[in-house]
Specification:
Elements lengths: L4 E5 L4 H10 L5 E6 L2 H10 L5 E4 L5 H15 L4 E4 L14 H29 L2 E6 L12 H21 L4 E8 L22 H13 L8 E4 L8
Parallel strand pairs: 1-2, 1-4, 2-3, 4-5, 5-6, 6-7
Helix pairs in contact: 1-6, 3-4, 4-5
The structure holds NADP nicotinamide-adenine-dinucleotide phosphate.
The site of NADP nicotinamide-adenine-dinucleotide phosphate (NAP) has 31 residues, from α1 and α4.
Organism: Amazonocrinis nigriterrae CENA67
Keywords: Oxidoreductase
GO cellular component, one term: membrane
Length: about 230
């Protein structure tokens, strides 16, 4: 990871902050993005290196363009993008309001589309890069109460695989992560009854992402699937 420039989107979240802490001692240069500037500054202040923080709402493509521009202005390149921003609305299908569906599609699908698209354009110029999209198992399997969330996450898989096809000749790798339940603030506002003690830790997710990023150059970990033993999807 020495000399790599890594953009972590959703850096203040459970998964994003665990990954950021792990990356902070690897020699990588870090660009951290999420909406809340105070939480970004708090995280940055805990790290043993100087990082670039860029408050960004990924539902706004112009803010995403600014994030990428600022990363390039500061570090000259982007080697890695990790999309770890997102939100969950889990409720019965007939309680899903249009605003719920908009939120799921705007943040989870369109937000990660914009960041992937903008970072990939920079990577394409240098014919090198790695994009990690934290999808979740509900981008691959179905679950009751997850219609809106799952629609957004299946969409992430769809565009990621299409862009991976377009970009493989430019040396750009994609890794999709299908994690099961991870005990993070994601669940704070989810009304579904879940047992967080049985979930995976954010560090498990961060370790998996780190594995993908540090695999030998010719290796492409295309998909990583980790489930808690209490809730297995095959
Ligand atoms: N937790 C799980 O069980 C689980 C399992 C599988 C997959 N996932 C996926 O993993 C990703 C991260 O989840 P997590 O558990 O780390 O969630 P989390 O702890 O709630 O963190 C979410 C992060 O996304 C950021 N964010 C939310 N909306 C944003 C927006 N519009 N623009 C920019 N940043 C935004 C948040 O910061 P701000 O609020 O400051 O913007 C925060 O940094 C999500 O895509 C989630 O769907 C989670």
């Amino acid at each position: 990871m020495q000399d790599k420039v890594v953009v972590v989107v959703g850096a203040t979240g459970g998964i994003g902050s665990a990954l950021t802490r792990k990356l902070a001692s690897t020699g990588a240069s870090l660009v951290l993005a999420a909406r809340d500037s105070t939480r970004l500054a708090t995280l940055a202040g805990e790290l043993p290196l100087k990082v670039l923080t860029v408050p960004t709402d990924i539902t706004d493509s112009q803010q995403v363009d600014t994030l990428i521009e600022k990363a390039i202005a500061e570090f000259g390149q982007i080697d890695i993008l990790v999309n770890a921003a997102g939100a969950g609305i889990l409720k019965p299908y007939n309680s899903v309001e249009p605003a719920d569906l908009d939120k799921m599609l705007d943040v989870n699908l369109k937000g990660s589309f914009y960041t992937t698209q903008a970072a990939a354009e920079e990577m394409q110029k240098r014919k090198s890069g790695h994009i990690c999209n934290v999808v979740g198992i509900l981008g691959k399997h179905s679950m009751a109460m997850a219609a809106a969330y799952s629609a957004s996450k299946f969409g992430v898989v769809g565009f990621s695989k299409c862009m991976a096809e377009e970009l493989k000749r430019f040396g750009i790798k994609f890794t999709l992560f299908y994690f099961g339940g991870i005990d993070s603030p994601f669940w704070d506002n989810v009304s579904l009854k879940v047992d967080r003690k049985k979930m995976l830790s954010p560090e498990t997710a961060a370790n998996a992402i780190f594995y993908a990023l540090s695999a030998e150059p010719q290796a492409v970990p295309m998909e990583i699937n980790i489930q808690p033993d209490s809730h297995l999807f095959f």
